[in-house]
């Protein structure tokens, strides 16, 4: 049943992401056409700033699902209940701390960012709604744990599919009956957060009715434990947030709002792919967490390597396709905003994700094992260096829109390609060949495939959507087929299928 559930989780997650992708893909140009790229750029900026507020809560919530899953696997329901209740009430305390700070930021948003006067009210409202959606998410974060601990991510995917349908309905209704405004994006985010709270609470009750909020089970020692282990997750997230958000925020603040709009649009495709990789990794993580709790170190390493190969197979294909066809996609997707700047920025943002996609499970190894100190510290240090150099560049009058994304890309490649796998090798005793061989094969094949595709690009018909979609399917099938047999020989592929899916 567990093997079948992994297949169900994987299939439902892929379908859920596809639905979300299609909705976002069609809604984004609709939104930009109605409110403009300068106004739209403040939404991804709000998410980057939101992540900075969210850092503290991650110390609690990131390890909560992991710890509850482990103690339940070991037959300790009392500890699970104490983690659950302690996590809930700790989030309530965080909400009381965050609310006034967020209110001050909303009021003084034009001090921190370059905001056109005509957009100031909309930007304030948008930030206010986005922040409120985050606070509601904190209230319901413990209820999303049940799908993880019970390995029923298909139910989480169902919730996301419903959420996507509600999202498109709200956008069309608001933009049809009222004058389109930036703050509608935040308002819809707020309404959807309420829906997710209700949905996750219902699912939690159905899957794990024994996990109930109980004040008498509040255990300060559990909070200290979560903070001790989760603090490095927070530092890790802060580093990742600084590394990915620095280009957009600094471009808006020191170059121009219009340039910030270009960066925001060029980030759309990388954000789609990052979301896809994260979705696929989240399907594999419950399986790996249970493997860590119940298997020997050697068996766990084998599971980790197999999971990374599978993730690489699933995620490298869309990254390569976007690198090859991003100019055609932008021209057809947002013709009114297209420029060569978008192509260059998009590739700068996509290439590090190609590295990350072949490293994500290894990166999460520290989270699963509860050993994130070194990787979090190094990531934060690199992010601070990139932010510092970028800030000096713009303060000295640097206006080149490519420099900051280029510095971010170089730092990401150094961190994910060298530090993370070497750390996993050192901790697990795995051989260099075992860890690096699939990575090198995937990267060399991907770069070679991109190069050859550009040589034969004139043979691809991409003048219309139907031609582009047909070409994406054909080229994608060719790439993933060859990639599959490079990562898995026939015997290992059959053995992998039998072991994972029955």
From TrEMBL:
Q: Which InterPro entries does the record associate with it?
A: Poly_Biosynth_Transport (IPR050833)
Tell where it localizes: Cell membrane
Q: What is its main location?
A: membrane
Q: Does the keyword Transmembrane helix apply?
A: yes
Q: How does it sit in the membrane?
A: Multi-pass membrane protein
A GO cellular component annotation in the UniProt record: plasma membrane
Which terms are listed as keywords in the entry? Cell membrane, Membrane, Transmembrane, Transmembrane helix
Q: Is the keyword Nucleotide-binding in the record?
A: no
Please give the start and end residues of each transmembrane region: 7-32, 44-64, 92-113, 125-149, 161-178, 184-205, 226-251, 263-289, 310-334, 346-365, 377-396, 402-423, 435-453, 465-490
Q: What is this protein called?
A: Polysaccharide biosynthesis protein
Q: Which organism is it from?
A: Aliivibrio finisterrensis
């Amino acid at each position: 049943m567990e093997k079948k559930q992994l297949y169900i989780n994987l299939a439902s997650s892929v379908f859920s992401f596809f639905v979300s992708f299609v909705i976002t893909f069609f809604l984004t140009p609709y939104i930009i056409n109605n409110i403009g790229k300068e106004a739209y750029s403040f939404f991804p900026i709000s998410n980057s700033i939101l992540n900075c507020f969210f850092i503290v809560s991650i110390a609690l919530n990131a390890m909560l699902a992991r710890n509850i899953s482990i103690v339940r696997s070991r037959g300790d329901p009392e500890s699970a209940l104490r983690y659950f209740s302690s996590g809930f009430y700790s989030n309530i305390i965080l909400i009381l701390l965050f609310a006034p700070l967020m209110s001050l930021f909303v009021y003084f948003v034009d001090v921190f960012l370059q905001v056109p006067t005509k957009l100031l009210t909309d930007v304030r409202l948008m930030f206010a709604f986005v922040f409120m959606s985050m606070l509601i998410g904190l209230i319901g974060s413990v209820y999303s744990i049940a799908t993880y601990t019970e390995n029923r991510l298909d139910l989480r995917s169902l919730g996301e599919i419903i959420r996507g349908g509600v999202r498109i309905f709200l956008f069309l209704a608001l933009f049809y009956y009222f004058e389109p405004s930036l703050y509608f994006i935040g308002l819809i985010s707020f309404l959807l957060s309420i829906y997710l709270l209700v949905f996750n609470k219902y699912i939690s009750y159905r899957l794990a009715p024994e996990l109930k909020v109980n004040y008498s089970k509040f255990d300060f020692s559990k909070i200290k434990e979560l903070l001790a282990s989760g603090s490095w997750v927070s530092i890790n997230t802060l580093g990742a947030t600084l590394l990915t958000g620095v280009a957009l925020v600094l471009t808006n603040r020191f170059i121009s709002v219009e340039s910030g709009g270009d960066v925001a649009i060029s980030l759309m495709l990388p954000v789609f792919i990052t979301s896809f990789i994260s979705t696929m990794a989240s399907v594999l993580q419950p399986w790996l967490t249970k493997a860590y709790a119940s298997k020997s170190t050697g068996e766990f390493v084998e599971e980790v390597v197999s999971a990374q190969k599978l993730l690489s197979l699933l995620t490298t294909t869309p990254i390569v396709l976007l690198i090859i066809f991003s100019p055609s996609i932008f021209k057809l997707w947002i013709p009114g905003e297209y420029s060569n700047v978008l192509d260059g920025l998009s590739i700068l943002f996509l290439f590090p994700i190609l590295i990350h996609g072949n490293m994500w499970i290894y990166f999460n190894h520290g989270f699963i094992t509860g050993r994130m100190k070194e990787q979090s510290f190094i990531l934060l240090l690199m992010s601070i260096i990139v932010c510092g150099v970028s800030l000096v560049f713009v303060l000295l009058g640097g206006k080149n829109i490519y420099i900051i994304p280029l510095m971010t890309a170089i730092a990401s490649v150094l961190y994910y390609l060298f530090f993370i796998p070497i750390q996993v090798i050192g901790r697990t005793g795995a051989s260099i060949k075992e860890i690096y061989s699939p990575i090198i094969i995937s990267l060399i094949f991907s770069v070679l495939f991109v190069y050859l595709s550009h040589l034969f690009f004139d043979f691809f018909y991409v003048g219309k959507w139907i031609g582009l979609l047909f070409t994406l399917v054909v080229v994608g099938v060719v790439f993933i087929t060859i990639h599959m047999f490079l990562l898995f020989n026939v015997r290992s592929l059959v053995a992998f299928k039998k072991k994972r899916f029955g």
